Amino acid sequence: MSRDDQQTLAGTRPAPTGAPDTAVIKVRDVEKLFGQLKVLDGVSLDVMAGQMVAIIGRSGSGKSTLLRCMNGLEDIQGGDITICGHNVGRGKSNRADLRRDVGMVFQSYNLFPHLTVERNITLALTLVKKKSKAEARQRAEQVLAQVGLAEKIDAYPEQLSGGQQQRVAIARSLALSPQVMLFDEVTSALDPELTVEVLRVMEDLARGGMTMVLVTHEMAFAQRVADQVVFMHKGKVWESGPTKELFAAPKTAEFAQFIGTGL
Ligand SMILES: Nc1ncnc2c1ncn2[C@@H]1O[C@H](COP(=O)(O)OP(=O)(O)O)[C@@H](O)[C@H]1O
Ligand SMILES: [Mg+2]
Questions:
Q1: Which residue is closest in CA terms to ligand 1's atom 4?
Q2: Which of 66, 79, 187, 227 fits as disulfide partner to 195, beta carbons 3.0 to 4.6 Å?
Q3: Does residue 211 register a pLDDT over 60?
Q4: CATH of domain 3-7+21-258
């Protein structure tokens, strides 16, 4: 079964491809400085194949920086990051390979306003992957169906709601068949009812076996869907572990306060 087929399956999670217990992302003792400011201070975490890991924490705790480091968008000053077999963060990694294997979606969807939904999705397929127009359109149809927007293939971004645009942005990322998807507060700019439809797409992806890391403020969603939760505070992994265990028994006052249980 191809990854593409696998991603469209709903229901229980299939066994991830590759050996079980394979860490697809390994972050070891990472230090990241902006000038004198240490933004990541000895961060370590593993993301296993097929897992959804939610990163939560206050604004400024280093969540976005951590995701950007994972995706090779930032240099790191200490430690080591491996993602889908690529060593990133120190000098030049093979950017093209990395872009193919790791998809990233941000709060701002950044669709090209003058291009149709189809063209927004197929641009990279035809230009970078050298797919034919027909092949690319077929792939666009597949990934749009996956995010529930098959009928919008010929629409322009301005004709779509914010939630629909964000789903197109997710589809655009999926079109390249990434092994891992990183999401940085993709629902933060959306109204609650539009948030729901985007979360549903992410939940479908998780159930289809996609390996995902998401930074989110949607605590109920993280609690229900994430396999692991990482609580960041002051540039450190303050607490982390299997979601149920973590929420059932916070170990630090900071995490307890963050989730509003007091300690
Ligand atoms: N490009 C940058 N230059 C300087 N400081 C930055 C930069 N990006 C982020 N920071 C700082 O790093 C810290 C962590 O930021 P960020 O990773 O965006 O946190 P979060 O996503 O948890 O809100 C903050 O103090 C922020 O001001
Ligand atoms: Mg952020």
A1: 34
A2: 187
A3: yes
A4: 3.40.50.300
Protein residue with its CA nearest to atom 20 in ligand 1: 60
pLDDT digits (tens, 9 = 90+) for 83-139: 999 999 887 666 778 888 999 999 998 899 999 999 999 998 998 888 999 999 999
Residues having CB within 6 Å of any atom of ligand 1: 34, 39, 57, 59-65
Ligand 1 atom at minimum distance from 66 CA: 17
3-state secondary structure the chain: CCHHHHHHCCCCCCCCCCCCCCEEEEEEEEEEEECCEEEEEEEEEEEECCCEEEEEECCCCCHHHHHHHHCCCCCCCEEEEEECCEEECCCCCCHHHHHHHEEEECCCCCCCCCCCHHHHHHHHHHHCCCCCHHHHHHHHHHHHHHCCCHHHCCCCHHHCCHHHHHHHHHHHHHCCCCCEEEEECCCCCCCHHHHHHHHHHHHHHHHCCCEEEEECCCHHHHHHHCCEEEEEECCEEEEEEEHHHHHHCCCCHHHHHHCCCCC
CA of 59 to the centre of ligand 1 (A): 9
Q: Is the pTM of this model over 0.70?
A: yes
Domain coordinates in residue numbering, the chain: 3-7+21-258
